[in-house]
Each structure stands twice: as structure tokens, then as C-alpha cells.
Design brief:
Layout: H1 3-19, H2 22-27, E1 33-35, E2 41-43, H3 47-62, H4 64-75
Antiparallel strand pairs: 1-2
Helix pairs in contact: 1-3, 1-4, 3-4
Length: about 90
Amino acid sequence: MSNYTQAAQIIINEQQQLIGPLANDLAKRVSGLQLLPNNQITITGEPKSVLSHLVTQYKSLFGDSSVDVCKYAIKRLSVKFKSGELPDILI
């Protein structure tokens, strides 16, 4: 699993804890992101852009607090992103 896939997965999981199934519904709207039946995801688009659009989906309904949840989720990842690898919305 790539760093970006892990990041998207943890963001979705954190949002699920707060807003339930709506988190998946919003994630399904992101072009280049596929949610698979076994609760796995794949990124088929440009990963940095996909992450940005995922966070933007949550922000569109719940504002900056959703972005903060996403940032917190990224910080909990065991992998660390290098400078410039994350979209600006997550910095």
C-alpha cells in the first residue's frame, strides 16, 4: 500500500468515526479514488490531487474542522511525507 493510499484510508477512517457512512459517500465522489467492497481503497488518479479532493469533499460540508481532522489523521501515520508531497490543504 502506497503512502498516499494509507493517507487516504486513515482520513476516511477518521471521518467515518465522526460522520459515519457519509464519509464513504463523500469519498466515492472523488475522481481517481475507488472504495472497494472489502473496505480497501485504490488511487487511480494523481495521488496528491486525489488527497486534496478528498479533504475538500469533507470541508465542503463540515468546514475547517474537517480539515483539522484530516491533518490529525495524517500526523498519526507511521510513514512521513517529504516536503512538497502533501497537498497544501493538509499542511
